[in-house]
Specification:
Strand order of the largest sheet: 3-4-5-10-34-33-35-31-32
Largest sheet: 9 strands, antiparallel
Radius of gyration: 25 Å
Structural class: mainly beta
Number of helices: 6
Number of strands: 38
Helix content: 10-25%
Shape: globular
Length: 536
Amino acid sequence: MNSRLLGAGTVLALLATVAAMPSASPAPVPAAKPLPLGDPGLTETRTTETLQPGVTLTRIERGAGTPPLPWTVEVPVPGGTGSPDPDAPPAALRDRASAEELAAELTGDGFAARVEEVTTPAVADFAGGTLGWRVRVGTYDGRAAANAVRARLADAGYRGSATYTGWDGDPGVRGSWRIDVLTVDPRAFRGGLVASYGPDLVSREKTTELAAAAGATAGVNAGFFVLDPRAGAPGDPAGIGVYDGRLLSEPVGTRPALVLHDSARGTRVERLGWRGRVTAPGGALPLDGVDRVPGLIRNCGGTADDTPTAHARHDVTCTDDDEVVAFTEEYGPRTPAGDGVEAVLDAHGRVVALRSPRGGPLPAGGSSVQATGAQAGELAALARPGGKLRIRHGLRDDRGRPVPTPPGTAVVNGGPELVRDGRTHVTPAADGMVRPDDPSFYYGWMHKRNPRTFAGVDAAGRTVLVTADGRATDSLGLSVPESAAVARALGLRDAVNLDGGGSTTMAVGGEVVGDPSDGAGERPVGDALLILPNRR
């Protein structure tokens, strides 16, 4: 396990304890209120150390040392002869008839196949219930035995994957969890709480690299970001991004975001929209985006003419051939290349060049506006060389009122909500995780256990950053509903899910805390939340 060991001179305390006791060497202490994970009888310990005044790190281990659960092999289900779409590609979940048809075929070929109904709990805006039926083969004591059967399945013409049953998301199971919690108390904190994207938006860096570059005491990965070049520029936020008060990426619809201030006071979860426009003496054009590849809207949630939808749709890239996008120097060394027009502005907002095709470097302190499709001619007519263009944009709350972002403000994208006003409030439908035509997405993303990162604020006004290791037999991870339950158990008044899976990383003192789940180790991410040392 690649986890940071707590050093001498730390402070031990329960997470809920405000007064801490100095100790020469740390030792686990029992939790006062166990986390609502797995069998209620599982053992649980918490170990807390003070990283700097006002900042603590707590390691929670639940169910350590419990006997392992079995492995199995999950076989994707094609559309059967009675399926509404028999030509659809195989999926983890299907209708019952299709699953039973596949199981019968597997049984006939000598495999111990079974059909399992998958049900999921109701949440704030999704009724839950039966998601579908899956097909599995056998139960095995370890991964090696499951992989041997998977190889036999492949030889017989079937696809399959070895799966640890502890990752299923079923309540009440035995198992083990490993969760790390950073708590920032503004009453004692004299450092800085910031979001960082690194040298530019389109470069991905590891959380440890972002923390080291800023001299941070600790940090966690933050918002969702573009990973595939076909979805935009890798590293670019896939949703809102405000850094030191500057809006460098527009919101995805009104998905929830984590709003922070460098003082660690006033942290909140809020649903934010935005408006933007480019103006000149001859007219104005509405902005579609900021610092992203025109025509590609990762996680959707853009304008009415986007395809296939203007609503948020997680892990989907919507398209729009006719867009106007503003760029800053923070985007990267060069703006995106492609068909269309680009008005290049100097530091005073004066048009110094019109580029077609678009793409290239920006002048020092400068910016640009790119337009594609039908909007290209509109921008060319508006942006006269030597004249001025004014780029204006800002955030709006759910009532349409402006939301100021002064220097020291950071906003990172997330979703779904987990807790609102102290109550569980999970919002996958509003935030694009529910696909009526694809229950397998909800099954894998929401229902099953995965590594998770989430954040929020407790009733005392403390900012809380949480990571949960996952995709391992000794740390199962969390479903999204379980993340909400853990957030409430930790006392969070408001909380939001951040990017997880292979992105989930906590860094403390230049080292990774926990075990990132990617096979290659720590994943480079789009941005991170960082806790800076006390100001001198």
